């Protein structure tokens, strides 16, 4: 059993959390609860603790300050943040100090606690196994496989922010670019595993889909895992019957756009396909993809236009019709603004390659 300390200045919140969770079911047991970070440090001096649930906003010594000090004195202790605010920046800053998860107090009663605490129990096992692996390798003097030099802390934080933001799930072009970048940087296998654990944790939280991270033999296995993860989410989105998860619904909408790129699509029409109002759909589409519906649709159509011009000889008017544009001149203008050249000029660049394939 992993020993748990609850740190929160709200006594009712502490007692409520202790009583509402079947801790033993997840390999956890509560050994204490205190009202602030100073008391928590004092508790750690005299008691063994594996995991602390920490409220960020507390008097005397805040949650962040407690985590910073505790992580220096007790590096094996892990943390789960309790916060009233979905403050991504604070969560990201805390992750460097052994924070394995965070829970919004506002959503705690709404969430499926069984899934939340099962995930926390699993993350404790995974991080403990990782620590033991590294410890055995160091203490026994066993030669571990040669790895790439680790990238800087700043770089790994940048990668974590990019990948856990999740926009790559919806945008296949962005996904391809991010994979290319990951291949090119000198990230070690261990750092790749850590990155995948953070990504897996975020995907489970946002999409309610569990994808375990394997031990990696090399970085390419990690990159393959990312491809499988995206395919799994796409499969989930295509087969859903329950539209309660907003992110899965937006992914389903993206896949619908890809499948019906030759149609004249509107935000209202696509929103109806995923049981959302137009305004709610448009707001959340921008939130999770980083683009408005119209910008995303235009980008997808332009991408399709380029692919078709690269592969075949096709008139601008015919291409416009294939992509759902009623006015060929409007389409031609969009393409020129996007590429800085017209369709025939773009296609001409690939004429030799097309002829070779035909022969």
List keywords for this structure.
5 strands, 18 helices, five-stranded parallel β-sheet, 3 domains, alpha/beta, Arc Repressor Mutant, subunit A, Rossmann fold, elongated
What is the H/E string? EHEHEHEHEHHHHHHHHHHHHHH
Stretches where pLDDT falls below 50 for ≥5 residues? 133-148
Please provide the count of β strands.
5
Computed structural class: alpha/beta
The whole-number mean of residue pLDDT values reads 85
Total number of domains: 3
Distance between the termini: 68 Å
Please state roughly what percent of the residues sit in beta strands, choosing from under 5%, 5-15%, 15-25%, 25-35%, 35-45% or over 45%: 5-15%
- Helix proportion range: 55-70%
What do we call the CATH homologous superfamily of the largest domain?
Response regulator
Gyration radius from CA atoms, angstroms = 25 Å
The largest β sheet comes out as: 5 strands, parallel
Shape: elongated
- CATH fold type of the largest domain: Rossmann fold
CATH class of the largest domain equals Alpha Beta
Q: What oligomeric state best describes the polypeptide chains here?
A: single chain
Counted by DSSP, the helix tally is 18
Indicate the CATH architecture of the largest domain. 3-Layer(aba) Sandwich
């Amino acid at each position: 059993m992993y020993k748990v300390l609850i740190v929160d200045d709200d006594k009712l919140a502490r007692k409520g959390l202790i009583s509402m969770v079947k801790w033993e079911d997840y390999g956890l047991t509560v050994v204490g609860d205190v009202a602030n970070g100073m008391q928590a440090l004092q508790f750690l001096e005299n008691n063994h603790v594996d995991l602390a649930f920490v409220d960020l906003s507390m008097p005397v010594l805040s949650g962040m300050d407690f985590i910073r000090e505790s992580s220096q004195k007790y590096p094996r202790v892990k943390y789960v943040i309790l916060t009233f605010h979905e403050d991504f920046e604070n969560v990201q800053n805390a992750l460097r100090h052994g924070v394995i998860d965070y829970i919004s107090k506002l959503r705690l009663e709404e969430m499926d606690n069984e899934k939340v605490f099962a995930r926390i129990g699993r993350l404790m096992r995974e991080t403990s196994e990782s620590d033991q692996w590294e410890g055995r390798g160091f203490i026994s003097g066993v030669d571990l496989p040669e790895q790439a030099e680790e990238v800087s802390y700043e770089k790994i934080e940048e990668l974590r922010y990019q990948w856990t933001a999740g926009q790559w799930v919806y945008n296949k072009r962005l996904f391809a670019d991010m994979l290319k970048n990951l291949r090119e940087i000198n990230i070690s296998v261990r750092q790749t595993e850590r990155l995948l654990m953070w990504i897996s944790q975020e995907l489970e939280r946002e999409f309610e889909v569990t994808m375990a991270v394997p031990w990696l033999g090399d970085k390419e296995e990690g990159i393959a895992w990312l491809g499988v993860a995206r395919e799994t989410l796409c499969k989930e989105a295509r087969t859903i019957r329950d539209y309660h998860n907003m992110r899965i619904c937006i992914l389903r909408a993206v896949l619908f756009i890809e499948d019906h790129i030759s149609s004249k699509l509107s935000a209202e029409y696509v929103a109806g396909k995923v049981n959302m109002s137009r305004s709610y759909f448009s707001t959340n589409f921008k939130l999770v993809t980083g683009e408005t519906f119209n910008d995303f649709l235009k980008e997808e159509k332009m991408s399709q236009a380029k692919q078709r011009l690269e592969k075949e000889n096709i008139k601008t008017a015919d291409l416009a019709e294939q992509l759902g544009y009623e006015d060929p001149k409007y389409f031609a203008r969009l393409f020129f603004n996007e590429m800085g050249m017209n369709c025939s000029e773009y296609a001409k660049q690939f004429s030799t390659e097309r002829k070779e394939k035909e022969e």
